[in-house]
Amino acid sequence: MPAPGGAGVGIEVQDAVEPQSLKKLSLKSLKRALDTFTPAHADRVASLSDSAKTRVVCKVNDEYAAVKDMPLEKSAGGAKPGDYGLEGLRIPASQQPITNSGTSSGNMGGMELALMPTRAQPPPRAPVVGAAPAAPGVDRTSTAISTTDRYIYQPSAVVLKRLPSKWPKPVWHPPWVNYRVISGHLGWVRSIAFDPGNEWFCTGSADRTIKIWDSGTGQLKLTLTGHIEQVRGLAVSARHPYMFSAGDDKQVKCWDLEYNKVIRSYHGHLSGVYCLALHPTLDILMTGGRDSVCRVWDMRTKAQVFALSGHENTVCSVITQATDPQVVTGSHDTTIKLWDLAAGKTMSTLTFHKKSVRALAMHPFEHTFTSASADNIKKFRLPKGEFLHNMLSQQRTIVNCMSINEDNVMVSAGDNGSMWFWDYKSGHNFQQAQAIVQPGSLDSEGGIYALSFDQTGSRLITCEADKTIKFWKENETATPETHPIHFRPPKDMRRF
C-alpha cells in the first residue's frame, strides 16, 4: 500500500497460486463423476416408450424385410422350419417365446417382431437326470435344455441369389494417335470451329487473329484481323455464310465468309466474352462472359433479345439445342443453369459440382450432356437435368474443353496437357494421352484450351498453349487383342 500522504507508487503483493498436477485434476474429475452417478446406480432403467418401440420395429423390418418371410427347407439333421433364427443359429424349441396365440415369434422389449417362422407348441421334454430341483410353480419339463441342443451352428438353408452389376459394359474403341502438328499462331490457341462442309476449320488465338486452315492438308488459307484482344469463342453457321467470334475486348463480331469482312458487331457485354454458341434452328446467338450474364442476340438486327442473368460469376461455357431447355450454361460459381428461351427465365439450377464448370458438351443425338470441372466429369439427362453418373475415373486437373462424336467417344483435355478418351455410355476411360510441347516451349505450356471433332467424327483437332494445332486419328492397326479393355464396374453405386 502507498505510504500515507506520500506520492510513491504502491506495490501489491499477490500470493503465488500453486499449479495443480494432472494427477490431482484427474482424481477430482473421477470423484465428481462418482458423486454424480453412484446414487442412481441401482435405479431401474425406464422401459421403451411407444414411439421408441415403433421406431425399433420399423428399423428391424427395414433391415430384414428381404429374408424374414423366406421359406426354410428341411435340413439333413432333421431340423424343421422354425428351428433356425437369424444368421443360421439353431434355437431350441424350449427357448422360443410362446405368444398367446400359440405361435412363436421374436420378442424385443415386449414387442412381437415376428421375424422367425411360426410353428405349433412342441411336446414337453423329459426332465434331465441330475438336474437341480425346480422352484415351486416352475415346470422343468418345458424349460430343461440338453447340452447338445444349445446353439448349434448350422448353415443357412436359403442362399440369396447375387444380382449381377447393372453397370453397362463398355464398347471397345481403338486408341487415338497424333499424326500431324501445324503452327502459325503467335500466341495461345484458344478456340476452334469446323465448317459444316468439313472443308476447312478456323482457330482463334491470343495473338488477336483468326486463321482459316484446310482440313485435309492443314495448310493456312486465310488470316482475319479485327479483334484487339485474344479470341476466345468461334462458331460457324450451318444455314448462313457467317462466322461469329468473341473475345476479351467485349466484342462479338459477325464475319461474312464471302467477303471475309465484319458486317455486324453486337455491343452489350460489360467485360470479356468467354463462350459463344449458335442455335441450330433459330437465327439467334448466345454469348457468355465475365459480366455473369448469358446474352441472346438476334443474328440479323443485332438486337439483344434476352439477358439471362442469375449466375454469380463468369459464364464460361454455353451449349444450345432445338428442344427445351434450349440453352444450358456453366459458370465459375460451380452451378449449371437450364434456361427457358421463350420466357427468358431459369428452368432449373444444378449444383452437383464443387468447382468451376469450364466445359459443357452435348451428345450429337441423345438428350444428354456432360459437364467438366476440376472435381469430376458428370453426365446429365435432359430436359430436367437429372444426374446420371460420374465418369469412372478422375482426371485431377482443370478440364478446359470436351467433345463427343457419334461413335460415343468423348475427349476431355486439361491444363496439364492430358487428354483422356472415354466411352460415353459407360463412363470408362479407355485411353490417356499426354500432349508433347513443341521444341523451344516450356513444359508448363502443354495446356489444351480447345478441341473439336470434325463433321465425320474420325479426326480430332486440339488447340494448345504451345501455339500449335495437333491432329489426331484412330490407330488403324489396333485390335481388341492388342489393346484389351480393363474395365471394373464401380463397387459403391451410391456415389454414381
TrEMBL record:
Ranges of biased composition (kind: Low complexity): 127-138
GO biological process, one term: mRNA splicing, via spliceosome
Disordered, as annotated region: 120-140
Repeat among keywords: yes
Domain of life, per lineage: Eukaryota
Keyword terms, alphabetized: Repeat, WD repeat
GO CC list: catalytic step 2 spliceosome; precatalytic spliceosome; Prp19 complex
Coiled-coil features, chain-numbered ranges: none
Keyword presence, Repeat: yes
SMART domains associated with the record: WD40
Record CDD domains: WD40
Residues in WD repeats: 182-223, 224-265, 266-307, 308-349, 392-432, 441-482
Any Pfam family the entry gives: WD40
InterPro entries membership: Prp46/PLRG1-like (IPR045241), WD40/YVTN_repeat-like_dom_sf (IPR015943), WD40_PAC1 (IPR020472), WD40_repeat_CS (IPR019775), WD40_repeat_dom_sf (IPR036322), WD40_rpt (IPR001680)
Similarity field: Belongs to the WD repeat PRL1/PRL2 family.
PANTHER family per record: PLEIOTROPIC REGULATOR 1, WD40 REPEAT PROTEINPRL1/PRL2-RELATED
Record-given protein name: Pleiotropic regulator 1
Lineage of origin: Eukaryota, Viridiplantae, Streptophyta, Embryophyta, Bryophyta
